[in-house]
Structure formats: C-alpha cells, structure tokens
Amino acid sequence: MIPTPNNFDAVIFDLDGVITDTARVHAAAWKSLFDEYLRGWSVEHAEDFRPFDLERDYRCHVDGKPRYDGVRSFLISRGIELPAGDPADGPEAQTVCGLGNRKDRVFNEVLSNNGVEVFPSSVRLMRELEALGIACAVSSSSRNCRRVLQIAGLERFFAARVDGAVSAELNLQGKPAPDIFLKCSELLRVPPDRCVVVEDAISGVQAGRNGGFGLVIGVDRTGLGGTLLENGADVVVGDLSEVGAGDLDPWLEAKRQTGRAGTTTLAAGAYRAGQ
After folding, report:
1. Is 1 part of any domain?
2. Residues 174 and 216 placed together within one structural domain of the fold
C-alpha cells in the first residue's frame, strides 16, 4: 500500500505523447500540410524544396504549441510571412489560420479513421493516483483534446481540463508560457508548487519550469531526454512505466532539499530518474 503523499496534491498531464499516442498523428498531419505548402512555395519563388523535418522542425517550432502559433513559428523559421487571417478562415485560405485549419482537417480525418491509441502505463499511473485520492488534470494546446479523451474513454479521470478551446476562450498564452498549467492549478485549487507536471514537449517542460511547479517530469519517446532536462524537466523517463505514484513524493522531497529531484543517467537509450 502506497502511503498518502506529503509533498504534492495534484498531477497535471499533457495529452499528446504522454497519455495518448496522438503526437505521431499530429506530427504526420503537420508534415503533410507543410510539405504540400512548401512545394508550392518553392515553385512560385524558384527556390529549392526543403521538406518539413519531423525531428528538428516539429520539435523546435510546432510541438506543444497552439496550432496557429506553430504555423507562425515554422513559417518564420523559413523566412515566410503570411497574414494572420481569422480562425473562421477556410482550410484553403493562404493565411496562418487557414493553414492551421487545414492541418486540423487532416488530423481529424486520421483520428476518425484510426481511432486513438492510449499508453497503458499512463492509464496505470492515473489509476494509482485516483486510488490515493490525488487529483488529476489534463492540459493540452490541442483544440481536439476533449474529443480525443472521449474516444479513448479517459475523460472521467480528470477533475480539470484546459485545452486549446479553453485557452482561446480565456485568451491564455500558449506554451512555453505557463498559463494553461496555472489555470489547471487554479481549477484544482492546488498551488503550483504542490502540483506535478508531466510533459513530452520542449515547450511544455519550459512552461512547467516557468510556472514554478513542484516537479516537472519529461517523457522522452524520441531520444531527446537531454534537451528536456536542459529546458526545465527535473527528471526524464522513457515511458511512465518507469514512474509509480510512490516515486513522486521522494523526488519532490529531494528537489526541495537539494534543488534536484534525483540523478539522471542515460540508460537503455533514455534518461531515467533516480538511478
């Protein structure tokens, strides 16, 4: 029996790449969108076609950010300027919002055809926390968050949800600003320093650090654990199968006493906490 934790009262989970395997769907949708757009751009401006890179471009410019921010960030990296447009723009509009809406269409087509894959280890951890009476929240930049949770049958686990739709309604800044995590903390009525944040994106661990959260766990599924550590993660694991509810309290205690949650070493290709 795991004792009731002393050092935290809530856990805030990112969705894509942490709870569900939809990060791969998002990445594929972004590549489809940008490669099509860049081909047309290269012909129109007589430049070489450089495809969207799933590692560098996705991680640096898109992952974890609100959809339109991701479009804008990537285009700027290629020296391309488009008018912002309006969220009501159709997917064929040559605007930031138009491109973002085109990506959303591709994502939803894949979601409808293939459903949602869930990481069993993440559900196991949520069940452990539920048994201890620890509140869980989900915080995501995706406007499709609620639909994904409903398809996956996971909505009941979360006492609070702050996603892209909520962010737009409340005018919250996207990651790496901590706004959406702080809103979750507020809805849960738990101070940030009593919350654990679980993220897989660089912008997400930055947001956890920027918000002063008690512990930021990075989930590294792509071999970039060192980058997550450099940008704000206290510990990094390859999968939440490496984390039990009983691990969180000692990591928080260690961080409060020493400023570190534990040593992190490169083992089996992934950074693992507390070894």
Report:
1. no
2. yes
